[in-house]
């Protein structure tokens, strides 16, 4: 009886590991990705370092609303949602953000390296789902737009940081 219990326990542990249990999805909306959405699971690659915290923001997919002040969007009854998570010290970096319903949205990622909750162009990083170089201006709506279905929409966002006079761009390192 003892051996059978041990075998069953080991089988359960093996099943948990093979099913991906332990792969951590960050942010307060992680349960939305675990339960099947609708949500966006953003895999973040190319981080400059493992300092500070990360932020994902969801906006309406319109020029006027993308990166608009959150209090104005909320007051107007428009879509706006934000999730924060500490940068994990090792392993893959994945954030989850729930969406109100399937549709088109704009998504922006920020690596708040100094933890001051204000984007510092000289220090912090950002990214959009298209992974097109952001440069020195506000990202274009088309680079940040993502179509979200009924379930969990998975995207990869490459973090971008100040790269001289040309503005934000990805670092030249593989991750």
Mean pLDDT: 86
Radius of gyration: 18 Å
Number of helices: 4
Sum up the overall morphology in one term: globular
How much of the sequence lies in strands comes to: 25-35%
Q: Can you summarize the main beta sheet?
A: 5 strands, antiparallel
Distance between the termini: 47 Å
Report on this structure.
The structure is a single chain. The chain is 18% helix and 33% strand. By secondary structure, the chain is α+β, with helices and mostly antiparallel strands. The chain has one domain. A hairpin with a 5-residue loop joins β9 and β10 (168-170). The radius of gyration is 18 Å and the shape is globular.
What is the compact description of this entry?
The chain is an alpha+beta fold. It has helices spanning 2-18, 30-34, 70-75, 141-144, and strands at 39-45, 53-60, 81-86, 93-98, 103-112, 125-127, 145-148, 152-158, 160-162, 168-170.
